[in-house]
C-alpha cells in the first residue's frame, strides 16, 4: 500500500511541475474520504495517505464476520501503528494465547484475535470441516491475525499469524520489528521474513526498500543493532541476521506486499549451504 501511495504522489507531483492546471493536491480535488484497510496500517502509510484526503478512516474486518472495528483519524501525525479503533457494538473480540485458545491474554499483550458476531452464527455452506476449523467451540471466528487490546479498548492488528517467524524457542511477529526498522533514515519500507535454518528453524531476514543508492544495507544494519541494544537491552531480542535490498516489492492482485514471493527469493539467496555472507544485495529482480 505504501508503494502505491508513494508512486501515485510522485506521478502527481511530476504532472504539477509540467504545468497541469489542476491536481489532487488542490484542496477541492482531494478525496472527500479515504478508507484504509486490508493490511496492517503504519504511521508511514497514514502520512502518505494524508496527501490524498483530509478525512481518513481505518477499518478492520473480514469476509466471514464483516466489519469489526473502525477508527476516525483526526491527525495522521498522531496515529499509532496498527491501531484499528474500538470494536463495533455488534461484535465481541478477545485475544487468546496462540498455543492455547482457552487462555485470554492480559490487556496490552499480543495473541490470536478471535471475533464473534452478537446474534449471528457463521457457517460455511456445505463444508462442515472448514466450519469446524474456522470456529471455536463457543462460536468465535479464528481470524488468523495477531494483535492486542489496549487499556482504552483499541484493537491493535499487527499482522497475520502465518507471517510469524520461529527461531529456536522463540516465535517472532514481524510487525513491531518492521516498525522499528522504518525509523531508520532512508528506509522507505521493510518486510521481515523467515529463512529456513537447520539449527534454529528460521533466521530473520530484513527485506528493504531504500530511498537511494546512498543508503547502504550496512548503515541500516548498524542502526538496527544500536536501536535494539539501547532500547530493549536484551541479548536474546530478535534482530535480522540477513538483509536484502529490493528495488520494489512484489504485490498481490490487491496491492498487498507479497510476502511469500519475497520469502522465496530470500530463501534462495540465504540458505546456509549457499550463503557466504550475511549481507547481500539483490540485483533488483522485482
From TrEMBL:
Residues 178-256 form the AMP-binding enzyme C-terminal domain. This is AMP-dependent synthetase/ligase domain-containing protein. Coiled coil: none annotated. It comes from the Eukaryota. Residues 26-117 form the AMP-dependent synthetase/ligase domain.
